[in-house]
Design brief:
With 276 residues, the protein is of the alpha+beta class. Helix content is 53%, strand content 7%. The protein has eleven helices and four strands. Strand 1 and strand 2 form a beta hairpin. The longest helix is centred in the middle third of the chain and has 23 residues. The radius of gyration is 19 Å and the shape is globular.
Length: 276
Amino acid sequence: MADPNVPEGAPVLAGLLADLRAESAVLDGLVAALEPAGWALDTPAPGWTVAHQIAHLAWTDGWSELAARDPQAFVAESGRVFGELSAAGADPVEDGAARGAAEEPAALLARWRTGRERLAAALAAAPADARLPWLGPPMKAASMATARLMETWAHGQDVADALGVRREPTARLRHVVHLGVRTIGFAFTVHGLPAPQAPVRVELTAPDGGSWTWGPAGAADRVTGPALDFCLLVTRRRHRDDLALSAVGELATAWLPIAQAFAGAPGAGREAGSSL
């Protein structure tokens, strides 16, 4: 019997927040000892250095924390700030990254560390069933934690690529895969295509050699391959041609080149052959 003193979904959220902290710690370990020249290294994202990547995460964590802690303040403040930036011809995401990248690395790192802990506390305290306002569709605290983990992993990949290091894939990739599968409809609509009505079966090899599956076993369309490759695809960190993913069926074949787990415009993505 469920404990009436424990909010519904609390164990799930606690696990997500633990995984978010672990993923953040991996990225923190990559940048903590960098000299200023390391923070200034270019990453695969055009115009973004390592500092821009961390600044973007700190910026997004800050807005997420406000949305979880005070939804009404988030709506008012985001409307004001984004409206002013748009009126000035500035992109809010680029502006946030640029402002953060201009900080001293130690100050930026400290701000990111403090902000991500404030976010975790705010999400843990948020009503489990409440839909929090966001820059895209509103989402529950668990979904916001999942989205933050996905972004931390994805921008961490950019940093790892810039530093020429390989991160060990973990079971936390399952959260990224989950978002990638759930956003199939969005991936089509953001490209001006009708959302698919038929299901796609996704069968992936987990980092430990096990099997992760989504969708009905009898679906005519199917995607198979390593979970890591699927995550690199849906975060648009690698080109479709550089990944060991297979698609069967017209829908699955059309989905892979446009798949994305994040909100907003898809961007140019990576060029074929650009992986390390």
